[in-house]
Specification:
Helix content: 10-25%
Structural class: alpha+beta
Mean pLDDT: 89
Radius of gyration: 19 Å
Strand content: over 45%
Number of strands: 4
Shape: elongated
Bound molecules: zinc ion
Number of domains: 1
């Protein structure tokens, strides 16, 4: 999910205009490179896939604008992830 939203783990979007934390339109461009393995009969399958996602715009569903959308830490996530890294 983080790959698709452009967020780092432990962060989330927040609209400073209305306080929205949960409803956003996230517009992305995705570039996918696939290694197609095709047999002699012409049947193919994908052996490898690399995806590159670029977030173009994040818009608050409530305000209808992305002007005040910011990235903030998820409460408690910082301590939880640093604790699990040490294990
Ligand atoms: Zn908003």
């Amino acid at each position: 999910m983080h790959e698709l939203t452009g967020l780092e783990p432990g962060t989330r979007f927040r609209c400073a205009g209305c306080g929205n934390l949960t409803r956003f339109d996230i517009e992305t461009t995705e570039r996918v490179r696939r290694f197609w393995h095709v047999d002699l009969a012409g049947e193919g399958r994908i052996d490898e896939e690399e995806r590159e996602v670029t977030v173009e715009a994040v818009t608050c569903r409530w305000c209808g604008t992305g002007a005040r959308v910011e990235v903030v830490d998820v409460p408690g996530a910082g301590t939880a992830s640093s604790a699990s890294e040490r294990v």
